[in-house]
Amino acid sequence: MTRPSANSTRAGAPGLTSETREASSANPAIPAQDAQLIQIVDATLADAARRSGPHLVCHPGCTPCCHGAFAINALDAQRLRQAMEEMAATDPGRATTIATRAHLYLEEFAPDFPGNPETGILDETEEAQQAFEDFANQAPCPALNPESGLCEVYAARPMTCRVFGPPVRSQNSEEEEGLSVCELCFTQATPEEIAAAEMQVPHAEEQALLAQLPAEETIVAFCLLPKLR
């Protein structure tokens, strides 16, 4: 997937530039609209899971999909940062533990980050996109609790995580369209069963909200750090 243009202006909080925060503040309806979007996605996932039956084997503690970095958009970043700010107020010990894992993750991988390490925003160049293909591929997400195997920001998880598992329509590098599924799921399913379980992702609704924000992408780790004052 080709990443949209990234804005590398220095931010007050890593993983969320000042332009993104200002755009959200200028339109206070964005968080409410994002909450509606998440409700739609979760309902769509539940329907796809019902149609998938035993072919969808995702369960708590199954973590292969929680390893390897992937790009997240401005809505995902806002959602994660809001969750961390709320957690810092209600469960500061847990928030500190997550932030510590994020710091350790970035200490190891930030030198190879194909973007701005101050803002956490990914570069848009073709060279940077190619470099990202090999970035932190085997590293566990810092939001993953290594003891329980559970995501500690599950309610605020990025869209990529929310739609992973059931069949989702996507394009490969040659722009050929098809249905992609988790490699652990649908291993015994027929093509017809896979097609019947396709999850209808509300891309248009998400893009309508993203159009109100700067076209910038980051990774999860930057969004788990405390806001800089």
Question: What report would you give on this structure?
Answer:
The chain is globular and about 45 Å long. Strands 1-2 form a two-stranded antiparallel sheet. The chain has one domain. The protein is built from 9 helices and 2 strands, in the order ααααααββααα. A hairpin with a 5-residue loop joins β1 and β2. 34% of the residues are buried. The longest helix is centred in the N-terminal third of the chain and has 24 residues. The chain has 229 residues and is mainly alpha-helical.
Question: Nutshell version of this structure?
Answer:
The protein has 229 residues and is mainly α.
Tag the structure with descriptive keywords.
42% helix, 229 residues, single chain, mainly alpha, disordered N terminus
